[in-house]
Inverse folding.
């Protein structure tokens, strides 16, 4: 029976009355609940998106999602502000790098001067040195080893660190700010800056009586006046066959007491300007040969540069997606299907022939495929025993050009990566980049001893995939017998 009370008259939906009905109240509750839910979802979506892509944007002038007075939110604000790259400089890149440095912040930088993997390790060491000296690292570009001033063009273009490694991820992982030179100084700047830097190279080896040469400063339009570091920075004193320095020996030069004790007359730069090592932008000529305890420790489990920096140098999402496409094509997997587990192999030959002894043939110097196959079986067995998985797919990356060698790889039913159009489609850097990502994605890895490409791949597989690794020894007949 319909009530005569106008408050319950469902037919009367005038604005003045509908809010008083039970149905109207329910609708209002539903309306406001929906609005609040949508607002919450929007806030969470914005927070997740901004935090994942731009951690600095967690700092909002107005709190859109509720009360911002909680201690947790304040901590998040401070952390995000700290990791915002714009917070570590005055503003947009400037003509002269000095105009963009904050007076309350100290910086540290260096440059690469080797192959790409060596320069990755150099930057890893630079970042770790920044951590222990409490300075903001300013990361250089990667330069191809064949880079020549008279042959500069698109095919030889420098590669920014942030185009390869996920900088927002790395900043969050180490909880410290990081800059690239392109954040500090305009890439098209016409200003050449004079700066004083430490010359480490001349103190750790005895053949080259000069700083380590690099095109990095030239690319950033820096004219450097070098001061030789003291001989005590060398890890193994008076031992010509080792080139390592130590992190804390170099770090001590970042502080006034040891710096002032170590100053000697600097070499003038090309414009005949002599400057002592800069205290605001601390810089070193070369940071590849640096360790905490012993030479080549990047391969060892305790390596601080790897533990605190290297393992957090993840690939950019774009590079990961591109590489996944290559892996799917290599394994003949549809684009919408998951990539099955595989074992990655890196075989380095071409430039290593210079390390073979004169009386040893290349066939005797380099490990044969039968030795590599044995190592592959070892990691397959370990995956089966430790993880309970059978991994049959094997992807081989190598600089080997011999078609007969690759035919033998095919006989093993192992797979090579088709790079026939990679340079054409993506540029000269991408064959080595894609190979490095493939190597890191293996459930297990078999590499070539003494190759920094293999060393980094092995560390990534250990850290990221919890996978077994093996390094194939070489240099003489039977070098990998065991």
């Amino acid at each position: 029976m319909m009530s005569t009370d106008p408050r319950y008259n469902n037919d009367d939906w005038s604005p003045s009355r509908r809010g008083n009905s039970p149905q109207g109240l329910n609708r209002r509750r539903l309306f406001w609940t929906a609005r609040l839910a949508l607002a919450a979802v929007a806030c969470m979506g914005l927070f997740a998106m901004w935090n994942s892509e731009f951690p600095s944007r967690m700092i909002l002038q107005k709190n859109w999602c509720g009360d911002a007075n909680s201690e947790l939110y304040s901590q998040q604000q401070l952390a995000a502000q700290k990791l915002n790259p714009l917070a570590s400089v005055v503003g947009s890149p400037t003509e002269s790098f000095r105009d963009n440095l904050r007076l309350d912040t100290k910086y540290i930088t260096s440059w690469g001067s080797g192959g790409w993997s060596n320069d990755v390790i150099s930057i890893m060491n630079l970042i770790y040195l920044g951590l222990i000296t409490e300075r903001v690292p300013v990361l250089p570009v990667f330069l191809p080893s064949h880079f020549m001033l008279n042959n500069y063009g698109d095919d030889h273009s420098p590669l920014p660190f942030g185009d390869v490694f996920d900088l927002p991820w790395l900043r969050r992982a180490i909880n410290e700010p990081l800059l690239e030179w392109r954040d500090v100084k305009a890439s098209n700047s016409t200003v050449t800056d004079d700066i004083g830097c430490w010359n480490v190279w001349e103190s750790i080896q005895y053949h080259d009586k000069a700083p380590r040469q690099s095109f990095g400063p030239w690319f950033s339009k820096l004219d450097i006046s070098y001061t030789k570091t003291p001989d005590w920075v060398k890890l193994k004193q008076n031992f010509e066959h080792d080139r390592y320095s130590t992190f804390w020996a170099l770090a001590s030069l970042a502080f006034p007491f040891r710096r002032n004790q170590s100053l000697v007359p600097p070499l003038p730069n090309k414009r005949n300007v002599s400057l002592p090592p800069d205290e605001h932008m601390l810089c070193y000529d070369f940071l590849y040969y640096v360790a905490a305890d012993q030479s080549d420790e990047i391969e060892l489990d305790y390596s601080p540069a790897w533990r605190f920096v290297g393992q957090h140098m993840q690939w950019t999402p774009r590079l990961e997606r591109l590489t996944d496409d290559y892996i799917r094509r290599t394994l003949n997997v549809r684009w919408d299907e998951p990539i099955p587990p595989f074992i990655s192999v890196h075989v380095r030959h071409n430039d290593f022939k210079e390390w073979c002894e004169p009386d040893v043939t290349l066939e005797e110097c380099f490990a044969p495929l039968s030795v590599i196959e044995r190592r592959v079986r070892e990691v397959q067995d370990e995956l089966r025993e430790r993880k309970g998985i059978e991994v049959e797919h094997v992807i081989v990356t190598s600089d080997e050009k011999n078609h007969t060698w690759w035919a033998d790889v095919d006989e093993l039913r192992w797979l090579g990566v088709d790079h026939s159009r990679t340079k054409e489609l993506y540029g000269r850097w991408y064959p080595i980049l894609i190979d490095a990502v493939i190597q890191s994605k293996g459930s297990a890895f078999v590499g070539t001893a003494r190759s920094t490409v293999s060393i980094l791949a092995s560390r990534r597989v250990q850290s990221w995939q919890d996978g077994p690794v093996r390094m194939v020894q070489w240099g003489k007949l039977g070098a990998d017998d065991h």
Observations:
- Confidence is low (pLDDT under 50) at residues 1-25, 45-68, 147-154.
